[in-house]
Amino acid sequence: MARQDYRARVYVTLRPSVLDPAGAAVESGLHGLGYDSVSSVRIGKYVELQLQAKDDVTARSQLDQICDRLLANPAIENYRFELDAITPADAEGESPALSPR
Amino acid sequence: MARQDYRARVYVTLRPSVLDPAGAAVESGLHGLGYDSVSSVRIGKYVELQLQAKDDVTARSQLDQICDRLLANPAIENYRFELDAITPADAEGESPALSPR
């Protein structure tokens, strides 16, 4: 059974109702550097990974499980992800998101 | 001088040449949970913030400075960002990215 390669980009963020001390610290640091107009700083996790699955539906369901079980804490975090089918050659190469700006 | 509100989404990732122990730990944890096909796990930061500026060019240049000076360590990290002009009403409300999946 041939399996398809996928690249996932996962964004894990604190639920809006949850206090974000790291975000508050960065915000006050930025104000201290003179960036007074900055507000609503929220810090989250950005995870890139590759996986193989027989089709998109299976890949999505695996990724949901991966997020629920390990990448995000459902009690305080939300997650969303983007999933792209990639060629085996892409799977070997560097992820475009990691290439310099 | 009227100022425009902006919402920024910043992605900070380790340069590809830099080892990612956190990513390796997550990868082995996922293998331990039975997700053997997962590979190339890389963990980064996802930062959301709002700022005001007189125009897009100024907002982008401020965000570059903010990334270079505080959000990313240029020696080992890359960053990229998305910047959207928002209405004052949006600026008050919850960021769409933070709303549950």
UniProtKB/TrEMBL annotation, chains A, B:
Q: Which InterPro entries match?
A: PurS, PurS-like_sf
Q: Where is the signal peptide?
A: none
* Catalytic activity, as annotated: N(2)-formyl-N(1)-(5-phospho-beta-D-ribosyl)glycinamide + L-glutamine + ATP + H2O = 2-formamido-N(1)-(5-O-phospho-beta-D-ribosyl)acetamidine + L-glutamate + ADP + phosphate + H(+)
Task: Please state the protein's primary subcellular location.
Answer: cytoplasm
GO BP of this protein: 'de novo' IMP biosynthetic process
The record ties this protein, via SUPFAM superfamilies, to: PurS-like (SSF82697)
Task: State its location(s).
Answer: Cytoplasm
Provide the Gene Ontology terms for cellular component: cytoplasm
GO terms assigned for molecular function: ATP binding; phosphoribosylformylglycinamidine synthase activity
In terms of Pfam families, this protein maps to: PurS
The record describes the protein's role as: Part of the phosphoribosylformylglycinamidine synthase complex involved in the purines biosynthetic pathway. Catalyzes the ATP-dependent conversion of formylglycinamide ribonucleotide (FGAR) and glutamine to yield formylglycinamidine ribonucleotide (FGAM) and glutamate. The FGAM synthase complex is composed of three subunits. PurQ produces an ammonia molecule by converting glutamine to glutamate. PurL transfers the ammonia molecule to FGAR to form FGAM in an ATP-dependent manner.
Which NCBIfam families does this entry report, sorted A to Z?
phosphoribosylformylglycinamidine synthase subunit PurS, PRK05974.1
PANTHER family per the record? PHOSPHORIBOSYLFORMYLGLYCINAMIDINE SYNTHASE SUBUNIT PURS
* Oligomeric and partner information: Part of the FGAM synthase complex composed of 1 PurL, 1 PurQ and 2 PurS subunits.
HAMAP family, sorted: PurS (MF_01926)
This chain belongs to the protein called Phosphoribosylformylglycinamidine synthase subunit PurS
Organism of origin is Rubidibacter lacunae KORDI 51-2
